[in-house]
């Protein structure tokens, strides 16, 4: 039924002029009217939508669970987006979209008031209240919290429910607090005596959990009472954990799944030529990095760091390691999808002479350093390190690649080896990225880097209200990280997915995270 | 041989239908063998449990750091370690674990608090299902092929069967699996991945699991077939076969009635070994076909340092090996009168 309506409209989609979303809404309404279905509009829509959307995800482990503080990879993130709502959503264009918070504002940037949407209920039938929001945020605060974003929310001194609003008080003003509230770790879950139940599947999102086997699959059915009328088009969602990239590709080709993530660049051309699926390559803010421990010789000298930054061929890395699905980065953790991205910096290129010049400035004729790498850091890390080593030789730098095991990489190498490989998913705001990995004393400051001017700006920019001044501040910070920082950032990696032709996607795909900001489950529909 | 047995046991059978002394001897022999083997098996499992525990202690990092991954900070790690009880000394943790495992209580997963017995239950069921499926295909095929190959030794059939089986075993499992996917899944005949859950009915289950079962069949058939063939051919040179041939019996009857019973012991052992492999060694096939079996669970648990699960699964694997070997030993003893009536 559904398919006929939508297929019939397909040529119209191709002609353009009308946005796909608009047409789809039209189609849903048309279908409902044409069939003269009794009942409410929501019900008619649910019937004209339909389909089971199966996603093959290259993550997932038997140790996954329902505790939001421990979520760390795409399977649990997407699963969460299917069953939960957040205070605020990051829209496809990167702007904030009200979700459970209907609106928010702050007089001084220090106390933020979120007005909670009324009439939204959890799958269990309980209404979403301000108390639930407080419990959901508090899960990540306090000494006993094991949450991964404990340090991110450390600046919050108080969270208080006041009727239908929630007031969040900070130590110091921060204009970006609403952005932090979009973090995937903070879904709105029902609070029981001020705490959330970390074994519960209950949420207020578009889909209700039907079954879940950690590390294997999750299946969900559409929430008939979902408050958003223009979302959650599928009847069912099945998320399948398919770790092997060849098995993932097979599953897509044989029609077992509609969408896969992390498509191996080597197989993209072949997949496209078969015509059964299309590739979505979304430039985001995710990037691969080689942090250098700025406390350890020889990386204490900025000239040595600059020499290394000029001694690698970024273009070649984008071509070879990413198969062209990415962009060169200028040692800048802020990506082109960020608001205050500094595009006018002088782009560093592969320049062995300049690298030699910086080595001489550092008082060295040649340099020998070891770079620890494993593919656990990012897919292709070992190859990237080998390319780096080849490039650096021309500049008189003997870069020895120390290949280490994937297993235990984050325990034994990262933050411990003086020079290693790592990666970052994009962050929606500059402050989030800088505070997490570049601020003095931050737990994940991979390069153990401190820069007084940078840290001063970081605090000042948070509370700056004037847009232009704020932009200037963040751009200066990018300049500092790029030219004085201790992290080599060769490239931004695109999010590369493959989608079967029977699933339609919006014109614009969110760049803030993978799989349409994890929201493919509620934003996409059957073609 | 039939006549011999009859004269032995027939007249001595008592009117009440009780056991003859001969049967009593056999039973007590078998019972003794089984008891000794079970005792040895338990001792072996105990040693294995020590080794498992010691080996998992050697892994770098622990569950707390692994769970938090890149986001581990000293504070959160300490809080989580405390919660998980990872701060107790190793002997204490070993004792707690072993005493639980003996009573069938493997505890709860450190990672997500689910009972391990429940986590393993479904996976073990899947693994055993796949192993039995593959065995149901491969054992008859290899026995028939082995017998026919021995019967028509050096014929074209023998050479083809050998070449085919050896080719299949020489390729790595994942290669065989991908070839099958290319031929049978991409043409739409069978699914390329296994999507089963506890409610899937048997027919669907057999259909969806066909490709992994076929892959495993191709991988294990050669071993069993070659052993069957070799054991029979070995016996074909013995004097009593010569006698049977001189009596004018048909070659098929010679092989089935006279050679095969004496060749059973090595064949049973090889089958047991392959069954154990089908249970414990199929992680590659599980990965390719996304089959939720114990192998993947084990790999997952190792990389996540969910030690309790690793230990439980390793113990199950060890128990599978020990018990299959036990069964093979007992069966080969029963089929071999020389072992049954040792003086």
Question: In a nutshell, what does this entry contain?
Answer:
The complex is a heterodimer of chains A (about 525) and B (about 350). By secondary structure, chain A is α+β, with helices and mostly antiparallel strands.
What secondary-structure arrangement, pairings included, does this model have?
The complex is a heterodimer of chains A (527) and B (343).
Chain A (H helix, E strand, L loop, with lengths): L1 H14 L4 H16 L5 H8 L3 E6 L16 H10 L4 E3 L5 E3 L2 E6 L4 E6 L13 H9 L17 E7 L2 E6 L6 H4 L10 E2 L2 E2 L10 E7 L3 E6 L13 E6 L3 H9 L5 E2 L7 H7 L2 E6 L4 E5 L10 H9 L3 H8 L4 E3 L23 H10 L5 E7 L7 H13 L3 E7 L5 H4 L9 E3 L5 H8 L14 H12 L3 H18 L2 E7 L1 E6 L2 E2 L9 H4 L2 H4 L1 E2 L1
Parallel strand pairs in A: 1-12, 1-13, 17-18
Antiparallel strand pairs in A: 2-3, 4-5, 5-7, 6-7, 8-9, 10-11, 11-12, 13-21, 14-21, 15-19, 15-20, 16-20, 22-23
Helix pairs in contact in A: 1-2, 2-3, 9-11, 15-16
Chain B lengths: L1 H8 L11 H38 L4 H6 L5 H11 L5 H13 L13 H36 L4 H15 L2 H13 L16 H7 L1 H27 L2 H9 L3 H30 L2 H6 L5 H11 L2 H29 L1 H4 L3
Q: What sort of overall outline of chain B do the alpha carbons produce when their principal axes are compared?
A: globular
Major sheet attributes of chain A: 7 strands, mixed
How many strands appear in the DSSP assignment of chain B? 0
**Termini gap of chain B:** 21 Å
**Spatial strand order of the main sheet of chain A:** 10-11-12-1-13-21-14
For the report, how would you describe the main beta sheet of chain B? none
Mean pLDDT of chain B: 81
Structural class of chain A: alpha+beta
Note the run of SSEs of chain B as H and E.
Answer: HHHHHHHHHHHHHHHH
Corresponding CATH architecture of the largest domain in chain A: Roll
Task: Evaluate the radius of gyration of chain A.
Answer: 24 Å
Classify the fold: give the CATH topology of the largest domain in chain A. Answer: Dipeptide-binding Protein, domain 3
Count of individual helical segments of chain B: 16
Rg over alpha carbons of chain B: 25 Å
Q: What's the total count of β strands of chain A?
A: 23
Based on Cα principal axes, name the global outline of chain A.
Answer: globular
Count of all domains of chain A: 3
């Amino acid at each position: 039924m559904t398919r006929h309506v939508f297929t019939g409209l397909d040529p119209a989609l191709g002609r353009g002029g009308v946005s796909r979303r608009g047409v789809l809404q039209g189609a849903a309404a048309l279908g409902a009217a044409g069939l003269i279905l009794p009942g409410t509009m929501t019900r008619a829509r649910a019937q004209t939508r339909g389909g089971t959307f199966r996603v093959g995800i290259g993550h997932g482990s038997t140790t996954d669970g329902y505790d939001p503080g421990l979520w760390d990879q795409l399977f649990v993130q997407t699963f969460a987006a299917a069953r939960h709502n957040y205070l605020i959503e990051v829209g496809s264009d990167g702007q904030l979209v009200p979700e459970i918070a209907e609106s928010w504002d702050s007089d001084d940037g220090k106390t933020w008031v979120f007005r909670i949407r009324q009439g939204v209920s959890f799958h269990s039938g309980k209404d979403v209240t301000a108390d639930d929001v407080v419990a959901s945020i508090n899960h990540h605060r306090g000494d006993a919290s094991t949450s991964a974003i404990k340090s991110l929310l450390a600046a919050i001194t108080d969270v208080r429910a006041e009727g239908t609003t929630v007031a969040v008080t900070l130590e110091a003003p921060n204009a970006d607090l609403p952005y932090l509230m979009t973090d995937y770790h903070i879904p709105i879950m029902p609070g029981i005596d001020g705490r959330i139940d970390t074994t519960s599947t209950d949420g207020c999102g578009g889909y209700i959990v039907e079954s879940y086997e950690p590390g294997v699959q999750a299946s969900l059915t559409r929430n008939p009472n979902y408050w958003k009328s223009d979302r959650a088009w599928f009847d069912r969602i099945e998320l399948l954990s398919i770790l092997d990239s060849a098995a993932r590709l097979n599953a897509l080709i044989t029609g077992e799944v509609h969408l896969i993530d992390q498509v191996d660049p080597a197989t993209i051309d072949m997949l496209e030529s078969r015509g059964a699926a299309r590739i979505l390559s979304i430039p985001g803010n995710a990037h691969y990095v080689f942090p250098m421990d700025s406390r350890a010789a020889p990386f204490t000298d900025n000239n040595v760091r600059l020499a290394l930054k000029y001694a690698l061929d970024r273009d070649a890395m984008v071509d070879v390691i990413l198969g062209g699905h990415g962009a060169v980065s200028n040692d800048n953790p802020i990506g082109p999808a960020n608001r205050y991205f500094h595009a006018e910096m002088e782009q560093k290129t592969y320049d062995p002479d300049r690298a030699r010049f910086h080595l001489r400035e550092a008082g060295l004729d040649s340099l020998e350093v070891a770079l620890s790498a494993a593919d656990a850091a990012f897919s292709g890390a070992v190859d990237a390190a080998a390319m780096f080593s080849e490039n650096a030789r021309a500049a008189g730098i003997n870069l020895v690649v120390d290949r280490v095991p994937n297993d235990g990489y984050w325990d034994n190498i990262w933050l411990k080896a003086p020079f290693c490989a790592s990666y970052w998913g994009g962050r929606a705001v500059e402050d989030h990225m800088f505070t997490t990995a570049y601020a003095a004393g931050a737990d994940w400051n991979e390069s153990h880097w401190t820069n007084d001017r940078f840290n001063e700006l970081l605090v000042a920019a948070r509370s700056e209200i004037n847009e232009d001044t704020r932009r200037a501040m963040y751009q200066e910070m990018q300049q500092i990280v790029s030219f004085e920082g201790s992290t080599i950032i060769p490239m931004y990696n695109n999010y590369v997915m493959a989608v079967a032709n029977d699933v339609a996607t919006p014109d614009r795909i969110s760049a803030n995270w993978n799989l349409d900001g994890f929201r493919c489950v509620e934003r996409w529909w059957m073609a | 041989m039939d006549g011999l047995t009859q004269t032995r046991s027939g007249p001595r059978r008592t009117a009440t239908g009780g056991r003859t002394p001969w049967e009593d001897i056999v039973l007590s022999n078998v019972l003794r063998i089984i008891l000794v083997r079970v005792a040895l098996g338990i001792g072996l499992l105990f040693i294995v449990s020590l080794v498992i525990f010691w080996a998992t202690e050697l892994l770098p990092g622990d569950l707390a750091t692994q769970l938090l991954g890149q986001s581990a900070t000293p504070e959160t790690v300490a809080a989580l370690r405390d919660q998980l009880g990872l701060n107790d000394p190793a002997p204490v943790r070993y004792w707690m674990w072993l005493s639980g495992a003996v009573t069938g209580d493997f505890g709860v997963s450190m990672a997500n608090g689910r009972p391990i017995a429940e986590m393993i239950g479904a996976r073990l069921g899947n693994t055993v299902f796949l192993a039995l499926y593959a065995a149901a295909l491969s054992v008859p095929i290899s026995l028939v092929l082995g017998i026919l190959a021995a019967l028509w030794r050096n014929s074209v059939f023998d050479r083809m069967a050998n070449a085919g089986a050896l080719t299949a075993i020489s390729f790595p499992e994942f290669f065989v699996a991908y070839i099958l996917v290319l031929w049978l899944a991409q043409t739409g005949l069978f699914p390329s991945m296994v999507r089963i859950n506890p409610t899937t009915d048997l027919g669907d289950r057999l259909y969806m699991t066909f490709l992994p079962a076929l892959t495993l069949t191709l991988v294990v058939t050669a071993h069993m077939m070659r052993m069957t063939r070799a054991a029979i051919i070995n016996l074909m040179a013995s004097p009593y076969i010569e006698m049977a041939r001189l009596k004018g019996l048909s070659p098929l009857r010679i092989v089935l009635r006279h050679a095969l019973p004496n060749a059973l012991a090595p064949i049973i052992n090889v089958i047991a070994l392959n069954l154990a492999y089908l249970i414990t060694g199929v992680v590659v096939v599980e990965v390719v076909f996304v089959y939720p079996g114990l192998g993947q669970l084990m790999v997952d648990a190792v990389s996540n340092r969910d030690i309790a699960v690793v230990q439980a699964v390793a113990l199950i694997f060890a128990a599978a090996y020990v018990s299959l070997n036990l069964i093979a030993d007992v069966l080969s003893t029963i089929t071999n009168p020389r072992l049954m009536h040792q003086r």
